[in-house]
Write a structure and sequence with these properties.
225 residues, alpha/beta, 27% helix
Length: 225
């Protein structure tokens, strides 16, 4: 079973899932990439009257999520089998919630997915911020430490800062029309070092960074004209 098995009973505007769901209009048609056990799929179907197609790599998770989906496909997004399966569909929204960082070829997948949007459709994406202060502090002390989940989840194979991601989206024909920041204070993430091990002067410098306490970015992307 996938370790990314969460529960969404309501929309907490301060949570990542709540912020994603708050951007979706009821009654929409959605392609959800990497849905895990369908915690958002279920909410979108039952609470928002949306029609949802899903793609998920984990067999067990996909089986659970499929009961809330119109169509489901269990496959690796990087293999692109989903593209043929859903080629005739057009969506109001395509969701990549903490998914792209796990893919071998994330921008190829993202570009191909954008071709399945309706003319006014949107792609909603969340990614972790590799430039969070807690990671930079560890790197200052020559540490780069993976964890089971979080900013440096042990299954992450791609990393972005804000400017990198926006630039790469532009290169594949997408415009990030909206960027939201999910914050977590310095020294309050799973990457935080014990306070006594960090030079206070270093902390003071890093706390002046504009995006140093962004834990995740949430982008709303549209196709460029």
């Amino acid at each position: 079973m996938s370790k990314y098995n969460f529960r969404v009973d309501g929309i907490d505007p301060n949570s990542t899932h709540g912020r994603i769901l708050s951007k979706i209009k009821p009654g929409s048609t959605i392609l959800e990439m990497g849905c895990a056990t369908g915690y958002m799929t279920k909410y979108m179907k039952e609470k928002m009257n949306c029609t949802v197609d899903i793609v998920e790599i984990d067999d067990d998770a996909c089986g659970i999520a499929s009961q809330y989906a119109r169509n489901s496909l269990c496959c690796d997004l990087s293999k692109m089998f989903w593209r043929e399966r859903f080629d005739q569909e057009r969506y109001d929204y395509i969701l990549f919630a903490d998914v792209l960082e796990h893919l071998v070829n994330p921008m190829t997948v993202l570009k191909s997915a954008s071709e399945l949007l309706k003319p006014e459709g949107q792609i909603i994406i969340t990614i972790p911020n590799i430039c969070h202060n807690d990671i930079l502090i560890r790197m200052f002390y020559d540490l780069f430490t993976y964890t089971d989940m979080g900013l440096l989840d042990c299954t992450h194979i791609h990393f972005w800062g804000l400017r990198d991601f926006v630039m790469q989206c532009e290169q594949i024909g997408l415009h990030a029309k909206e960027c939201n920041c999910i914050l977590r204070e310095t020294s309050h993430t799973e990457q935080a070092l014990p306070a006594e091990d960090v030079d206070p002067a270093l902390l003071e410098v890093l706390k002046k960074r504009d995006f140093g306490e962004v834990y995740q970015y949430l982008f709303v992307c549209v196709k460029k004209e």
